[in-house]
Write a structure and sequence with these properties.
three-stranded antiparallel beta sheet, alpha+beta, about 240 residues, 2 domains
């Protein structure tokens, strides 16, 4: 699971999975769904400061937190749609998602906020270049993830794409977070076919030179850490 601070908790596709009319409504009413997703993230971030003081950077996106964000963003979309047209159909949807957001928030109140004891942030896209070698010619997708002392892996980076001929790949990570002790590299011929290439974690200051052939038996990129524990919270929130 990703950390709350890694980026948007929910995507437009995830919102659309909850409401099949979303894209049509957004297009008809001129609503920027990406902006609503960002605004919902900001709002939840402020409320998480109340639920988990001084722990915001360690909050893990649990299923309940993802639903809370998804429903809150949808509520914002339909609030805008209703305010634009005063259409009762939009008012019904706004009320529906307001209640669902409140329900998801209440699940967190019962379950608690997921916290990573040693949070590892999402990695930035690595730099990938060609160097002399004998990896098969073609286009490769490469990503990476940082690893902490407990061998917990943070969320993987957006992949880099590199096309090579009569060469191989050199993967250079970005600046490591303070708690990272190494990193893992994933590569493949497509965005959904990347697998782990290293056996043990690569040192934070070390590049990776891809051997040939490309390994295919490793696991795929992960989405981040599981919560180390669930922090109980007080019932202090006033809205969804």
């Amino acid at each position: 699971m990703a950390l709350f601070v890694d980026g948007p908790v929910s995507s437009i596709e995830e919102l659309a999975a909850q409401d099949s009319q979303l894209l049509d409504v957004a297009s008809t009413e001129g609503i920027d769904v990406t902006q609503k997703i960002a605004l919902a993230q900001e709002e939840l971030g402020l409320e998480l400061e109340i639920l988990a003081p001084r722990l915001r950077r360690a909050v893990v996106v649990t299923p309940a937190l993802k639903l809370w964000h998804t429903f809150r963003a949808l509520e914002m979309v339909y609030t805008d749609a209703y305010n634009s047209q005063l259409n009762d159909r939009y008012a019904g949807k706004q009320k529906q998602f307001e209640e669902l957001a409140r329900w998801a928030r209440d699940r967190i109140m019962v379950i608690g906020v997921g916290i990573a004891a040693d949070p590892v942030p999402r990695a930035a896209t690595p730099q990938v270049t060609a160097t002399p070698g004998n990896l098969a010619d073609g286009t490769y997708y490469v990503t990476m993830a940082w690893v902490n002392r407990e061998s917990e892996e943070g969320a993987s980076a957006a992949p880099a794409v590199e096309t090579i001929a009569e060469s191989t790949l050199v993967v250079t990570p970005g600046i490591a977070p303070a708690n990272a002790v190494g990193w893992n590299v994933y590569a493949g011929n497509g965005p959904d076919g990347m697998t782990r290439q290293n056996v043990t974690a690569i040192a934070v200051e070390q590049d990776w030179v891809q051997p040939a052939p490309l390994g295919s038996a490793g696991t795929g990129p992960g989405t981040g850490q599981e919560p180390s524990y669930l922090k109980a919270v007080a019932r202090v929130l006033q809205r969804g």
